[in-house]
Design a protein that fits this description.
about 450 residues; mainly alpha; Serine Threonine Protein Phosphatase 5, Tetratricopeptide repeat; 25 helices; elongated
């Protein structure tokens, strides 16, 4: 009996000793590591964190250090491994970081659903930044959900998160998920600005530039763009560059425009990358360089920026900076056209019409001309009128032909003015009216069209 009691005492004592050893020598390593971390002795901090790898906070700290390259070489893959360990033990910071990493494809395969799941896990634990990130994901992500965006942005905004305040302002500005209210948008932008959030400074500048919710004032707009640009907001830098390019309200200065476009482009802002491409193409503010233009257009186009895709298509079509390749031009035009850019839709229609870069297909040409025409593209309207007139790719319909010609003619498209004049002269699709025919021919001759002048001379004789 005595031996049994003695054994039990020994076991209990061993357990107590093990507990105190773990608490004092293992669990304490995290706290000691944080002391070294705060003193910027990162190598020692990492050594101590790695001695305490059963501690969720140490796991999270290791994830952060590998993610940011603090004390170690930056390694998103290793960071994700540590963050996963900490997140599995309900460390909200780690869950939020995994949401960011899955959203951006950093150290993990990009996965929007897993990003959403991790943001949601952290948000439900009251992590304000994760709530803002989740609200933004629902607002601008591939799969948008404006009701959820409003819920999470409002929750984080009310708790003082500047990103959420700005995004909630954008929702009120655009009427996404809420009833459009520019005064409320202004309120949330100003809240974010009070927290020194640079993107909100840009958004306020844009309100002044457009005269939305405030009296239009491009000088004030430029002042807010300058503040945002100085605070490294890429969109503010781009808008400021655009002001220097246009010379309004500042004095036109292409070199300043290039400088600000470069700053925004270096932050991977696609509109600025496209603008830089155009500067190198034209030689404004820089030495003309088609190769540089191609490089910047490529960076922007690969981020699905429609204007850059159009510009890249034109360079392949013309053989500027690249070997001429009509097929590649058509590919870039299609990508851009799918973003509903009218000029790209028109060019794609032309390629189907002419059979250049694509097999000739008049029905497809009609489809793309119509998409552009419905966005008031005058050349597309004229071409669509011609196709209805000839019955190419569509059943012949002279009335529709005249309607499309008129739309283009009213935009001063000289070809459409001549075509419409001919229809009035012949009474095709419209009632015959020589006065209207003369009127449209006069408009065309004022633009220097020789055929219109000949037709006008005939009518006057």
């Amino acid at each position: 009996m005595f031996n049994k009691i003695l054994i039990a005492i020994i076991i209990i004592s061993a357990g107590i000793a093990a507990y105190w050893y773990y608490s004092g020598n293992v669990g304490n390593n995290f706290e000691r590591g944080m002391v070294h971390y705060n003193n910027k002795n990162y190598t020692k901090a990492i050594q101590l964190f790695k001695k305490d790898t059963d501690n969720a906070n140490a796991q999270n700290q290791l994830g952060m250090m590998y993610y940011n390259g603090i004390g170690v070489e930056k390694n998103p893959i290793t960071a994700s491994l540590w963050y996963h360990k900490a997140a599995a033990r309900n460390i909200a910071d780690a869950q939020n970081m995994l949401g960011i990493m899955y959203k951006n494809g950093e150290g993990v395969v990009q996965d929007r659903e897993r990003s959403e799941q991790w943001f949601l896990s952290a948000s439900n634990r009251g992590h304000i930044e994760a709530q803002a990130n989740l609200g933004e994901l629902y607002l601008v992500g591939i799969t948008k959900d404006f009701l959820k965006a409003e819920k999470w942005n409002r929750q984080a905004a009310t708790l003082g998160n500047s990103k959420a305040q700005h995004n909630l302002g954008i929702m009120y500005e655009t009427g996404q998920g809420v009833k459009q209210n520019l005064k409320v948008a202004l309120h949330w932008f100003q809240k974010a600005i009070a927290n020194k959030y640079a993107p909100a400074q840009t958004s306020l500048g844009k309100l002044y530039y457009d005269g939305k919710g405030v009296a239009q004032d491009i000088v004030k707009a430029s002042q807010w763009y300058q503040k945002a640009a100085a605070n490294e907001d890429a969109r503010g830098q781009f808008y400021l560059g655009a002001m220097y390019y246009q010379g309004e309200p500042v004095e036109q200065n292409f070199e300043q425009a290039v400088m600000w476009f470069n700053k925004a482009a270096d932050q991977n802002y696609p509109a600025a990358q496209n603008a830089l491409g155009s500067m190198y193409l034209s030689g404004n503010g820089v030495e003309q360089d088609f190769n540089q233009a191609i490089q910047w257009y490529n960076k922007s186009a690969n981020q699905n920026y429609a204007k850059a895709q159009l510009n890249l298509g034109m360079m392949y079509e013309d053989g500027q900076g690249v070997t001429q390749d009509i097929v590649k031009a058509a590919e870039w035009y299609r990508k851009s056209a799918q973003h509903n850019l009218a000029e790209s839709q028109f060019k794609l229609g032309l390629m189907y019409y002419d059979g250049l870069g694509l097999p000739q297909n008049l029905s497809e040409a009609v489809i793309w001309f119509k998409k552009a025409a419905e966005q008031e593209h005058d050349k597309a309207q004229n071409n669509l009128g011609l196709m209805y007139y000839e019955g190419d790719g569509v059943a012949q319909d002279l009335t529709k032909a005249a309607e499309w010609y008129q739309k283009a003619a009213l935009q001063n498209n000289v070809d459409a003015q001549v075509n419409l004049a001919v229809m009035y002269k012949k009474g095709q699709g419209v009632s015959k009216d020589l006065d209207k025919a003369k009127s449209w021919l006069i408009k065309a001759t004022e633009q220097g069209d020789e055929y219109a002048q000949d037709e006008l001379d005939k009518l006057q004789q």
